[in-house]
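Protocol check, entry for the methods section draft. Step 1: assemble the input record (protein sequence plus ligand SMILES). Step 2: submit for complex structure prediction. Step 3: store the structure tokens unaltered in the notebook. Ligand used here: pyridoxal-5'-phosphate. Step 1 record:
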Amino acid sequence: MPRTPMFSEPLHVGRPNVGDRQRLLERINGALDRLWLSNNGPLVAELEERVTTLTGARHCVALSNATTGIQLAARACGIRQGQEVVVPAFTWIASPHALEWAGLVPVFCDVDEETATADPQSVEELIGPRTGGILGVHVYGRPCRVTELAKVADRHGLPLLFDAAHAFGSTYQQQPLGGFGSAEIFSFHATKYINSFEGGALVTNDDEVAAKVRAMRNLGLSPDRDIVSAGTNGRMSEISAAMGLVSMDIMDDLIEVNMRNELWYREGLAGLPGVTVRSQAPKERANHQYLVLEIDAAASGVHRDTVHETLYAHNVFSRRYFYPGCHQSEPYVHAPAVHAPVPLPHTEALSTRVLALPTGSAVGEAEIAGVCDLIRTTLAG
Ligand SMILES: *Cc1c(COP(=O)(O)O)cnc(C)c1O
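Step 3, stored output:
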């Protein structure tokens, strides 16, 4: 620990963005007055409508979180227990864990280093008689190579799902994410761009998938309360929907804040050898909720982990997001023949270079200048 850390108050990655408190409290008061706190209340209905408008997709089913959403999506698409689902190893552990917990078998594909998303060729290599589906992940809100993945899925007659936990508000070929594949799943967890404390949403253009998920999130009950399937409790509460709606009110402002922060980071780190700020896809809208550096030890002379530790000592809680690759995490690391049958060189290379830094409304120009100074001094050795 240095004698005086640069920051006396810690800076975190993923500090919640909070919208207008007064409007939030008004919405919560409304729910209290109605005595309607959960079970598809008016705030949940309003959030679903807002999401269909924003994404242009036919259906939105609000959920308790994205992890449950991935499980419901897989089941609604007919992926059966014991079947394999191809998923990139470079993602948050929630993506494979959601599958594993539902009795499915995650099989890890590699990513391309430019988009950090599933490499369609690597996906196709892994498809075999046990494959039940594909789960792409729009990592850091940058869209997958959707068209190519859809071709692979179509060629093999497989459902294609997208973990869109990072990607609310992002576009692919100028179309909002949400309507691609069989379904896309957003997360509204507290650390995400739009938050509802805890929450998520499944978005789809498929009427049947939507109807199934809507029933399954409510213990398999139809709108007429007939029991039509097995189900679970994946409901979103009214207080979560209130937070989500208020959060969506400021979504454009948040993107502006994130983009301005990114500019300050780019200026502050310009010219440092071996250090790059990861970019979003050209010509696409993105939420810029993550600010991710890549530190190439060979070119910079300093390993990413050294920068990470130095920042920590100064109260800047950067995150190695994602390290290690999911294939090197519990429990998958113990069964490489099942979960990681092909080499994953790009996942492994990326996961030693990436470092997520604080952004969002909790940091400003002064904090970012300080973080950049710390990185400069660390590299100067
Ligand atoms: C946050 C996250 C999830 C899980 O979302 P929850 O709403 O917390 O369940 C899934 N996948 C990725 C890539 C995430 O970052």
